[in-house]
Amino acid sequence: MSQIALPLGSRSKSDPARIILGNANAGAYEALKDPASWPYGTAVLAGPPRSGKSLLGLWAASQGIIVLDDADGMDETVLFHRWNAAQEAGEKLLMIVRAQPWDITLPDLRSRLGAAMQLEIGEPNDAMVGALIETLAEQRGLTLAEGAAEYLTPRTLRSFAGIEQLIIAIDRLSLERKVPATMSIWRSALEAMLGPDQQRLL
User: How far is CA 115 from each of CA 13, 42, 44, 84, 121, rounded to the nearest angstrom?
Assistant: First the structure.
């Protein structure tokens, strides 16, 4: 598992924003590193909530790529003119969307983006879930007891948003009870997220 530190002014040099690279996003990252291979210099990146699409977009922007985040919420005529402008200027253009398939109603835009490089962030595997648990906890200043990733990985929701919610729940319970984030806190956080019916998994 590897990480990319992002050159963002809002973070200190000792605590940079980071992208965790794993099975779910490694293919997209490799394609973003090679914009010369994109058809018409254009790529479309999709992925589930909290999966790091915008962070990858920030990294791409730092490489000189024009990035349009939440492109599927923008006016399609504006997007069409922006695509044309990028073609005329020889710019590389990355559009970030919430999910595929992207329902584009403007025929000219649909035909052009249909030919673009299509990239998608998938579901994290166990190794990536464990890395996300450790990194998200570190970013919140939350110290997890030893063995947390191994215990939590097979029990948490298999989604980026679910993993983030779990770490937030653990942090909140640890602060409320004024105790370290050990197994009793992990179990309570999992039960709060998944419900009492999940007790058998804990």
Answer: 39, 9, 10, 14, 19
